[in-house]
Amino acid sequence: MSSTVIAAETDERSPLLQNSSQFVGENEITPFASLSPDNNDERSSATKPTDPKQRLVSLDVFRGLTVAVRMLSSLSRFLLIILMILVDDAGGAFPSINHSPWFGVTLADFVMPFFLFSVGISISLVFKKVSSKPAATKKVVLRSIKLFLLGLILQGGYFHGRDDLTYGVDVNQIRWMGVLQRISIGYLFASVTEIWCVNNNEVNSAIAFVKKYYIQWLFVLVLGVLYMSLLYGVYVPDWSFQVINQNFSSSVPQTQTVNCGVKGSLEPPCNAVGLIDRLLLGESHLYKRPVYKRTQECSINSPDYGPLPPNAPAWCLAPFDPEGLLSSLMAAVTCFLGLQYGHVMVHYKGYMHRIIIWLVCSSSLLILGYILMVIGVPLSKPLYTVSYMCITTGASGILLIAIFYMVDVMQIKKPMGLFQWMGMNALIVYALAACDIFPAALHGFYWRSPEKNLVNGTEWLIVAMLGSKRWGKLVFVLLEITFWGLVSGFLHVKGIYVKL
Prior knowledge:
Layout: E1 5-8, H1 37-41, H2 52-90, H3 111-126, H4 133-155, H5 179-196, H6 206-233, E2 235-236, E3 239-244, E4 253-258, E5 262-263, H7 272-280, H8 325-347, H9 351-374, H10 386-409, H11 417-424, H12 426-434, H13 437-443, E6 446-447, E7 449-453, H14 454-466, H15 469-494, E8 496-499
Antiparallel strand pairs: 1-8, 2-5, 3-4, 6-7
């Protein structure tokens, strides 16, 4: 994309989505920015300290505030990429690391909320002070559009995966939503409210804190009420879809009908999340391999993908987008909650004071999520249910506390280097590795037949050496992760970062 640049700098290293953005107009706040005169000139005269020593101290304080956020952001991007590689390449052999087929959570189901949570924290620091709200808003909108379009290219169907040497997509079949698209929506909502909906009141008490950010909480309440009203209040009628009948070589589309006629269902075939996506996005633009194809009703190899069992319901072949429109509203709430955790970091200076507030908030979210589960709101990542949002956000808060304590209180930073390497170049690793562009390119060089390529050959050799396809697959994936870690480390040493 023309909007993607490669920056090779020695004074200032600022990876993609580091603190989710690096712009706020003239009053730009860039964590770990260089102390050059150019950077000082960009700041408004109202915020320029007259004493250079005081300026240095204030910058050091701000850097201290952002260390944990940098670590959390890098760790979340690292986990997102690593688990995507593990899930895609080894999830079949190890279901415990794969996404839950529909209800419940696994390790992989915590990654996306973790990432959205860290983006929200970052936004609170980036937009701590804004000199030009229209300019900041313009840049936020442009970055959101670029992120959305990049996701459209990577996950819209243009690339066909490592086992398919073809490329291209029928615009009538392109997938509109995806991982980066969901992140762009949460980033846009949270950033715009942080720019426009926060007053200039001084925060010197808990009541003042609430008064400063109450509009954001109202926005969260509106999103939550809208989501719950649609999820439980929309009537889902019977619906039909077309699928290619695999029993005929002519590939003639066959019409399948799903019997619903219900309201408030959270099951795969008859929920309001799928209905809204089919109406607004179009059935042909949804994800063709949803996780519910791994349920017992749809796979004899459940919880992995597999052939349909006898008398499988028709909806097993239907498309469903796990990053759909309605579920993205609740996903945006995760960004807003991360935003509030960041506000605590900004306004409360004592380490233990922050930790106590975060611990109370995280525990409350975990308890609320458990209560919702007990009263009948199940955990479901594809639907992004309220209970799922509460549990995963609470867990993200607990992890933030652990990282903050280790990095800022205990000053243990060197072991986090690997996380930072891959996290600071998350975009290039995500595109080349997690989206299979690099393996697909390697598959283009083969010996006599496409199956005899370097990637498959390496995997076959490891499996043969270990005598186990399951463990051989895992070792191969771990080697793949190590390779991309070394690539990221090399780019980090050279000061090369790919960003939007």
